[in-house]
Queue: 2 jobs
Job 1
Amino acid sequence: MATYSEEEIRAFGLVKEALPKHVAVIMDGNGRWAKAKKLSRSAGHRAGVDRLRGIIRLSSDLGITSLTLYAFSTENWKRPSDEVGTLMALLIEYFTKEIDELFSNNVRIRIIGAYEEFAPTVRNVIERAMKRTEQNTGLNLNIALNYGSRAEILRAANLAMKQVVAEGKDEILAEMLESYFYTSGQPEVDLVIRTSGEQRISNFLLYQISYAEFLFPEEYWPDFTDEAYLSALRVYQSRSRRFGGLEENA
Ligand code: IPE
Ligand code: IPE
Ligand code: MG
C-alpha cells in the first residue's frame, strides 16, 4: 500500500491534484498483437492478462480512486466458443493467482456486469474475490464482465421504476437512476483509454463517460506498458476540461 508522495508523482511529470479520479480502459488488441507475432489468439489474451498487474499497481500507487477495465462485453459471446472458453479459463486463473497480492495492496474488487450469467466455476472465483476484498479501502478495481452499457441502463431504469412505484411516486430522478448503476458511489469517469488505435466505445459506460476525456493510443493492449500509461496520464493533465462552462482564467 505504498502510495507515491507528491514529489514522486511530480517526478513522473504528473501533478497529484490533477490526476483523474476514475480511469476506464478498453483493453483492445490482444488478437492483433498475437497475429502480428504469429501466435494464437489465446496467447494474445494471456499476454493481455500479464499487463494487468502493472496498470493496477500503478493506478493504486498513484492514488487513483477507481480503475474500470473492460474485460468481456455482452457482445463478446459472439466469438467462437473456444475463444470464450479460453477467456473464462484465464479469468479463473487470474483471480486465483492474483487475489492475495490485490488484497495486500488494499484493492477492492467489484465486478460490473451480469456476471451471474457465467458458469458456476467462474462465478465462484469472482464472488470470492469480491467478498475477500470487500473491506479494502484503496483502489476500486471494477472489472467489466458480461458488461454492456445499454443493458446496465435498462436494468437501472427497471429498478428505479420499481422503487418509484413502491413509493407511490411518478418520476425517476437522476440520482435514483445512478444509484442503480454498477458504478454507483464512485466518481464519474474522467479518462477513457482505448488501446489498439480503434476509436469507438463498443457499449462501454455510455452514461458515466458524459464528460470524460478520450485517448486512443496505437499500442495493442499487451504492449501498453506502465510508461505508456504514465504518458496517457500526462496527456490527460494537459487537456482543458470545461464541462460546458468557460476556461477558468479566460
Ligand atoms: C480485447 O482484445 C480482449 C477482449 C475483447 C476480450 P481483442 O480480442 O478484441 O483483440 P483484437 O481486437 O481482435 O485485436
Ligand atoms: C471491446 O472490444 C470489449 C473489450 C475490450 C472487452 P471488442 O474488440 O469486443 O470491440 P469491437 O468488436 O472492436 O467493437
Ligand atoms: Mg477487439
Job 2
Amino acid sequence: MDIGRYMELCLSHPEHGYYVTRDPFGVAGDFTTAPEISQLFGEMVGAWLADLWIKLGSPTEFLLVECGPGRGTLMADILRSTKNVPGFHEAARIYLMEMSPVLKDIQKQKLEAYDTRWIDDLSQLPPLLPVLLIANEFLDALPIRQLIKANDNFQERGVSLMGNDTFEVTEITAEATILETVPAKILKAADEGVFETSPVLNQYIKSVDILLKKQKGAALFVDYGHARSSLGETLQVVKSHQFADLFDTPGSCDITAHVDFENVANIALADDLAVHGPVTQGAFLRALGIEHRAERLWAVANEAQKESISTGLKRLIDTEQMGSLFKVLALCHDPLIRPEGFDEDL
Ligand code: SAH
C-alpha cells in the first residue's frame, strides 16, 4: 500500500486507529497543541473571528465550524472570549467536524453550555448560511504520500507486510493521478529527494473553497509547515512527546506531516478565493495583540498564574518555539475583506 493508506489506517482505522482509541493530548499524552498551552491562543482566534464576522456585515445567522477540534479547548476559549461581542453568540451555529468518538465525548463535556452539533464531513453543513471555519493542527493529520525523485524519474514510497509480520518500506510505481499533484517547479527542478503530497488534503481544501464560494465566509488554518512547496521529508511519528519509528506499534503513535502552505494557497487561488498569508504564528498573534492581552492577564494573576502566562506566551510566539515553524493562512470569498493579522507576508 502507499504511505498515505498506511497513515490513514494508523490514525483512523474504525477500531484500532490512533485518534479513534484515545485522547492524545497533554503531559500524560503524546503531544500538546497551542490551545492546550495557553488560553491566549483561543482568545486571539476569538477576536479574529469576531472582527471578521463584523466585516461580513454581522450576519444574524452563520456557521461557526471547527475541523479537528481535539479536546474542544479552542472552541471553548473562542466562545468565552466573544461572549461580550453583541450578537455574535446569538448568530453562531456551532459545528464540529470530528472523527474520534473519544474526543467527541470530551468536546461534549467541554461545550455543554452551548448548542453544538457534530458532522463527519463538510457536505453535512446546512446550505445558504455564511461560514467562519477554523482548523488548528488538523491539516497535518491528513494522510500524505511520498514520491521519490531520482534521475528525473518518480517512484512512490510504499509499505509492505513481510512474511514475518513486520512492515518494510518498498517502492511502488507512481501513478499518473499522483504525479499530477506535483507542482511544475518540483517536476522541473534538478534536485533529487522526497516530495510529499496529499490528495486527501487537496480534496478537503477544495471542499472548503466550494463552501466559501457558495455560502460566503472565511477559513483560518494554523499548522506547522513550510511557506513554499519544496522537496523534503517531514513525516513524523510521535509517542509520549518523543519521536518514534513509523512501524512502531501501528495505531498507537501520532503520525503527521508538515503542511505545504503554497499548495493550499494555490488550490484556493485556482478556486478564485482571496488568500491571506501564510504568516508565522508569532507574527499573526502579535498583530492581534497577544502581548497586550498577556499583560492584562498578568496584572491580575497570582505568582503561579504569572509563570504560566509568561511561559505560554513564549511558547506560542518565540521563534525558537512555535512562533515561526507554525504558519497561519486565511481564505475568504471576498477580496475586499481584509482579515486582521496578515501584514507580514512570508
Ligand atoms: N485542533 C486541536 C486538535 C488537533 S489534533 C488542537 O489544536 O488541540 C487533530 C484533530 O483532528 C483531532 O481532534 C483528530 O481526532 C481530528 N481528525 C484527524 N483527522 C480527521 C478527519 N479526517 N476527520 C475529522 N477529524 C479528524
